[in-house]
Design a protein that fits this description.
- With 212 residues, this protein is of the alpha/beta class.
- It has one domain: TIM Barrel (Alpha-Beta Barrel), CATH 3.20.20.
- It contains seven helices and eight strands; from the N terminus they run βαβαβαβαββαβαβα.
- Strands 1-8-7-6-5-4-3-2 form an eight-stranded parallel sheet.
- Strand 6, helix 5 and strand 7 form a beta-alpha-beta unit.
- The longest helix has 11 residues.
- The chain is globular and about 40 Å long.
- The two termini are 18 Å apart.
- The model has no long low-confidence stretch (mean pLDDT 94).
- Its cofactor is Zn(2+); Fe(2+); Mn(2+); Co(2+).
- Keywords: Carbohydrate metabolism, Cobalt, Isomerase, Manganese, Metal-binding, Zinc.
- It catalyses: D-ribulose 5-phosphate = D-xylulose 5-phosphate.
- Catalyzes the reversible epimerization of D-ribulose 5-phosphate to D-xylulose 5-phosphate.
- It comes from Leptotrichia buccalis (strain ATCC 14201 / DSM 1135 / JCM 12969 / NCTC 10249 / C-1013-b).
């Protein structure tokens, strides 16, 4: 069994109560979350549109959480400079950029950590030659664009394979994460857990503790 890394909980803002976002993020931070996962959707790469820079910027001054910005957008390069002003990690999809290495270097030029997301059907080979320049790989455990989807169990092998390739890189998972699937992905080698519907459905303290 692969040795587990320290688990980091990243509540997904997408499923929080938008009428009281400041209170929501203050609460999860108080209860032990370390990251805030921010899904930016363009209605093109994924069917839905979520929120953009103005919303995230307005929240930045109210939180000390690591802002983990997940760009679910086509050709993300034109957005990176704007999001770099208030993010700590910027994650792009390997499928959404024509020149992944160039995008990685652009993010690094702003002094931000780099994440690369892989959809369920995207093989690890697409990041093989860029791994040394990536801080975190986001393994999508559902198809992107919608909350509340069912965890895809085949992704456990993908996580295991990545952990064998690189023992130190952060492996984030997003999609269908709850107390049961959290145990499975941690055993496989993931250490950053994104959870939205599960955490924000009530009793935040119990939910966050159950993921650790």
């Amino acid at each position: 069994m692969i040795k587990e890394k320290r688990t980091i909980i990243a509540p997904s803002l997408l499923t929080a109560d938008f009428s009281k976002l400041k209170e929501e993020i203050t609460e999860v931070e108080k209860l032990g979350a370390e990251y805030l996962h921010l899904d930016v959707m363009d209605g093109n790469f994924v069917p839905n549109i979520s929120f953009g820079a103005p919303v995230i910027s307005s929240l930045r001054k109210h939180s000390n959480l690591v802002f983990d910005v997940h760009l679910m957008v086509n050709e993300p390069d034109y957005l990176i400079e704007g999001f770099a002003q208030f993010s700590d990690i910027i994650t792009v999809h390997a499928e959404a950029t024509k020149h992944l290495n160039r995008t990685i270097q652009l993010i690094k030029s702003f002094g931000k950590k780099v994440g690369v997301a892989l959809n369920p059907s995207t093989p690890l080979d697409v990041i093989k030659y860029d791994l040394d320049n990536i801080d975190m790989v986001l393994i999508m455990t559902v198809n992107p664009g919608f909350g509340g989807q069912k965890f895809i169990p085949e992704m456990l092998q993908k996580i295991k394979d990545l952990r064998k390739i690189n023992e130190n890189i952060d492996i984030e998972v997003d999609g269908g994460i709850n107390a049961e699937t959290a145990k499975l992905v941690k055993e496989a080698g993931a250490n950053v857990l994104v959870a939205g519907s599960y955490i924000f459905s009530g009793n935040y303290k119990e939910k966050i503790e159950s993921l650790k």
